[in-house]
Specification:
mainly beta, Porin, twelve-stranded antiparallel beta barrel
Length: 232
């Protein structure tokens, strides 16, 4: 039962995962932007739950002008149950209309998630997904709103699910930005989180933190995350 609960939560968080260079950590909802052309970035974070902890690293590279590839993974450990699981993700993303100041943009992302320790071998448990990221810039980028709509195939349950994400980033003053969002799929209550992003080196290095929980969830669904993003 513990494994099923943790796998379900991990899928919801993974399949809406944000890999963009601008919305980025700590948002889960993706945006209509890419890592800079012919360059790479790294997003890494720790997410702590009651009795457990996740650690993630997701490098992403834009090999051309409009094609971003993300390849990385994470590890979850539950100290109380002496339980450990791994997740690996590969994602591809392109844009049809890049986001511009006081405008809007949209694109397409698709990927695959594997839980290698749950079902090893050629038939590893995995989920294939796609979503459309749409972003809107307001008040000269003081507020940027992101909307994701997509589908995912739950291989374990042999069913299709609709996924969604709605998030916003807004300037707080100086190097600080705030974030707020809700995300999930149609099989359970959504998740929400609030957080702050701080730029140590503008457009190069940032740190962030969030508090989140499942809607109507108990204390076990609550988390605290601390992360960083490096765009050399």
């Amino acid at each position: 039962m513990m494994k099923l609960i943790l796998t379900s939560c991990s899928l919801v968080l993974l399949l809406c995962l944000s890999h963009s260079a601008h919305a980025a950590r700590p948002l889960v909802t993706d945006d209509a932007r890419l890592t800079n052309a012919h360059s790479c970035q790294l997003e890494s974070w720790v997410r702590a739950y009651e009795g457990g902890r996740e650690m993630w690293a997701l490098p992403a590279c834009n090999f051309g002008e409009n094609f971003e590839v993300t390849l990385g993974g994470g590890v979850y450990r539950n100290q109380d149950e002496n339980y450990r699981t791994e997740d690996w993700i590969v994602q591809f993303k392109t844009l049809f209309k890049p986001l511009e100041t006081n405008g809007w943009g949209w694109g397409l992302a698709a990927g695959h998630v594997k839980h290698t320790d749950i079902q090893p071998g050629p038939n590893q448990l995995g989920n294939t997904y796609f979503y459309v990221p749409v972003s809107f810039s307001l008040r000269d980028d003081d507020v940027i709103v992101h909307l994701n709509m997509g589908m995912l195939r739950d291989k374990q349950a042999s069913e299709l699910k609709a996924s969604m994400g709605l998030g916003a980033e807004f300037k707080l003053g100086g190097p600080f930005k705030g974030i707020a969002e809700v995300f999930g799929d149609n099989s359970q209550n959504p998740f929400y989180q609030l957080g702050v992003r701080y730029s140590l080196v503008p457009e190069v290095f940032q740190v962030d933190g969030t508090l989140g929980q499942q809607v109507n969830g108990d204390s076990e669904s609550r988390w605290l995350s601390i992360g960083l993003r490096w765009t050399p």
